């Protein structure tokens, strides 16, 4: 998707991505668009920083890395494609975007008045994923080929964790790439969400709305389904009854496929390296990272993971 347009050079502090750096990017992006951000509230810090701007009824996504420009361009294209096909999904704010603030991609979205998905909404996730997977592929742009481990190695390289953890995780990545290459998937390739967990739903007036299009790609839908299955089996976030609701809503149980264990291990490393990026943000996050990597090392699942 290539060339960067809508560029703003600004005085952004150096250093690793943090809530402070993201706030500086937000200030410049808001000044560029004229969108009021004086009452901005940080909603989430993960692969992106998400801010709610109540005065403007907007949500701003700021990417963690200057390397994610193409992903931001794709998010805008995917949002328009989903809207054209009637998929209940987040809608863009009416400004030229994405915007590059000293290299950090920023996008503006219409605020959805509701709550994030949670307990009781896993069936809605299954139904929305089925709708996405059955949506005809876009014709005005091309989705990238699925690379499920694309961001794992950069996360490991930049994280402030012991070298022994990094060596363990990088070795696991090599093993998983080899195992993935050997898989024979039972389902046909489709458009996939790429980060298909229940918190990437908003529930507004009782209706589920899909959000977060950064990892959309063309590939195997089993990866989307295996996310909830891994949350159930590895993290302990769902009961057997809730997981059954998800499978019933979608019409398929990915755990019955003999290749599922590879998908499960891959999602475990994705979930662990995602939280690893923020170990300096709080003692709670550092403790959760320690729990997750110990689960991966030992194979024991007696210590539930905490969602963040």
Distance between the termini: 31 Å
**What kind of assembly state do the chains in view correspond to?**
single chain
Number of helices: 9
What is the CATH architecture annotation of the largest domain? Alpha-Beta Complex
Average per-residue pLDDT, rounded, comes to 93
**H/E element string?**
EHEEEHEEEHHHEEEEHHHH
Find the CATH topology of the largest domain.
Aminoglycoside 3'-phosphotransferase, Chain: A, domain 2
Structural class: alpha+beta
Low-confidence stretches: none
Q: Could you give the count of β-strands?
A: 11
Q: Helix proportion of residues, in percent?
A: 40-55%
What is the general shape? globular
Our estimate of the beta-strand percent is 5-15%
CATH superfamily of the largest domain: Aminoglycoside phosphotransferase (APH), C-terminal lobe
Largest sheet strand order: 1-5-6-4-3-2
- Major sheet size, sense and barrel closure: 6 strands, mixed
CATH class of the largest domain: Alpha Beta
Number of domains: 2
Q: What's the alpha carbon Rg, rounded to whole Å?
A: 19 Å
Tell me about this structure.
With 308 residues, the chain is of the alpha+beta class. The protein has two domains: 7-111, Phosphorylase Kinase, domain 1; 122-298, Aminoglycoside phosphotransferase (APH), C-terminal lobe (Aminoglycoside 3'-phosphotransferase, Chain: A, domain 2). Helices cover 42% and strands 15% of the residues. The protein has nine helices and eleven strands. It has helices spanning 19-33, 69-84, 122-134, 152-158, 163-181, 222-235, 240-250, 260-276, 283-298; strands at 7-8, 41-45, 48-53, 58-63, 99-101, 104-110, 115-116, 190-192, 201-204, 207-210, 217-219. A six-stranded mixed sheet has the order 1-5-6-4-3-2. Strands 7-9-10 form a three-stranded antiparallel sheet, covered by helices on one side. Strand 9 and strand 10 (207-210) form a beta hairpin. The longest helix is centred in the middle third of the chain and has 19 residues, at 163-181. It is globular and about 50 Å long. The model has no long low-confidence stretch (mean pLDDT 93). Residues 51-257 form the Aminoglycoside phosphotransferase domain. InterPro entries: AGP_Transferase, Aminoglycoside_PTrfase, Kinase-like_dom_sf. This is Aminoglycoside phosphotransferase domain-containing protein.
């Amino acid at each position: 998707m290539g060339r960067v347009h809508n560029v703003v050079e600004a005085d952004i502090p150096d250093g690793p991505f943090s809530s402070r750096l993201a706030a500086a990017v937000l200030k410049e992006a808001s000044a560029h668009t004229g969108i009021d951000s004086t009452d901005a509230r940080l909603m989430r810090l993960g692969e992106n920083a998400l801010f709610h701007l109540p005065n403007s009824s907007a949500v701003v996504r700021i990417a963690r890395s200057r390397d994610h420009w193409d992903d931001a361009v794709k998010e805008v294209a995917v949002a328009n494609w989903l809207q054209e096909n009637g998929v209940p999904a987040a809608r863009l704010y009416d400004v030229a975007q994405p915007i590059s603030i000293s290299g950090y991609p920023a996008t503006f979205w219409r605020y959805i008045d509701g709550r994030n998905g949670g307990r009781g909404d896993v069936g809605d996730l299954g139904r929305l994923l089925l709708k996405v997977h059955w949506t005809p592929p876009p014709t005005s742009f091309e989705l990238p080929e699925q690379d499920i481990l694309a961001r794992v190695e950069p996360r490991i390289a930049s994280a402030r964790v012991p070298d022994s953890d990094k060596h363990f995780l990088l070795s696991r990545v090599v093993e998983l790439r080899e195992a993935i290459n050997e898989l024979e998937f039972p389902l046909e390739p489709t458009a996939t969400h790429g980060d298909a967990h229940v918190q990437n739903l908003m529930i507004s007036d009782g209706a589920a709305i899909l959000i977060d299009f950064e990892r959309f790609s063309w590939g195997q839908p089993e990866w989307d389904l295996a996310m909830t299955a891994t949350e159930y089996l590895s993290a302990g976030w769902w009961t057997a009854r809730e997981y059954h609701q998800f499978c019933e809503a979608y019409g398929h149980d990915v755990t019955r496929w003999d290749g599922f264990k590879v998908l499960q291990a891959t999602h475990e490393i994705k979930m662990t390296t995602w939280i690893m990026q923020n170990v300096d943000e709080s003692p709670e996050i550092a403790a959760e990272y320690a729990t997750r990597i110990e689960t991966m090392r030992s194979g024991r699942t007696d210590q539930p993971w905490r969602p963040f």
